[in-house]
Amino acid sequence: MLQGVIFDHDGTLVDSERKHYQLWVTLLAEYGVEFPEADYKAHLAGVPTHFNAEYLTTHYPLPISAATLLSKREALTQDAFGKKPCPLISGASELVEWVANKSLKMAIATGATAYEVQPTLDHYAFGRHFSIVAARDDVANAKPAPDVYLLALKRMGISANTCIALEDSPTGLHSALAAGLDCIVVQNDYSRGLDFSGATVILDSMQEAQAWLAQHYNL
């Protein structure tokens, strides 16, 4: 019996990947480096920022360390994401309300920091549904490690076999699976076509996710 749903944040609830990509473009341009969107989609979309920094300093001619690049990027992130909310993914608000109306427990488990999630909770009044947020700065290991999902489950007071995750990236999927969760993948423009082996179902919209949940769990 389904007791809870855990939502990823970036790329699942909010359309943030374009903004993340543009921040990297801006930052790398300072060093005369062009960063193609195809490379971002293939290697960085949905991946925690510190892994992004390690990839970029390994694969691009940057004169700084991964730690320095990460520090510069975090400063940009606080300014870009900590003040203004990203647009919602189409159908996200309706799905959140629908899950809440089914009296299911809800949480967010994210590779983002808490300050990146807060504008979403405030601006879209999601705070009334998501009293439980497990963010990157709450755990020792970011996705694809299971830490944020395990923390969310602990705070929800339920076991993995009574809960399902919603994700948009292979990194997030691997995190959910490592925590013992079934996982719905809702692809977006930055993740479509990537390897989602192990997903319970792969869908193209939040509307499809709602219909699948309703049918699969007889809700």
Assigned CATH superfamily of the largest domain: HAD superfamily/HAD-like
What is the overall number of helices?
9
Order of helices and strands: EHHHHHEHEHEHEEH
Distance between the termini: 11 Å
Count every beta strand, where a strand is a DSSP E run of 2 or more residues: 6
State the CATH architecture of the largest domain: 3-Layer(aba) Sandwich
CATH class of the largest domain: Alpha Beta
Unreliable segments of 5+ consecutive residues: none
Verbal overview:
The protein has two domains: 4-15 and 86-216, HAD superfamily/HAD-like (Rossmann fold, 3-Layer(aba) Sandwich); 17-81, DNA polymerase, domain 1, CATH 1.10.150. Helix content is 45%, strand content 11%. The protein has nine helices and six strands. The protein has a six-stranded parallel sheet with strand order 3-2-1-4-5-6, sandwiched between helices. Strand 4 (163-167), helix 8 and strand 5 form a beta-alpha-beta unit. It is globular, with a radius of gyration of 17 Å. The model has no long low-confidence stretch (mean pLDDT 95).
